[in-house]
Write a structure and sequence with these properties.
Number of strands: 4
Largest sheet: 4 strands, mixed
Radius of gyration: 18 Å
Distance between the termini: 59 Å
Helix content: 25-40%
Shape: elongated
Order of helices and strands: HEEEHEH
Number of domains: 1
Strand content: 15-25%
Number of helices: 3
Bound molecules: zinc ion
């Protein structure tokens, strides 16, 4: 079967960031399959560094605009809490450790 997916002629913004062609923002943005949307992560998990607090964006351009806006004023991604998965894992380990 023919694959009709069009290949963009222009490199994506994400590729340009990775290639160092445009300024890399302090917030990651990418297409999230689970959200079925472009997302910007505004926080990271304090246990595993996972991306948290995702902002959904219409497309890559909007996501990049969002990270630029977020990066302004020296903002950076904070790690103030743990994501569900890491928290559960942490609790499991804690129960194990507490039995010493
Ligand atoms: Zn995590």
């Amino acid at each position: 079967m023919e694959n009709n997916q069009s290949v963009p002629i222009q490199p994506s913004l994400l590729e340009q960031v990775e290639n160092g062609e445009i300024e890399a923002p302090d917030f990651p943005f990418y297409y999230c399959n689970e959200e079925e949307s472009w997302v910007v992560s505004t926080e990271k998990c304090m246990l595993g560094g996972c991306d948290m607090e995702l902002i959904r964006c219409k497309n890559e351009a909007e996501a990049y605009e969002k990270v630029l806006a977020l990066s302004q004023g020296g903002n950076y991604r904070r790690a103030r809490k743990a994501c569900r998965a890491c928290f559960d894992e942490y609790n499991d380990r804690l129960e194990f450790v507490e039995s010493y």
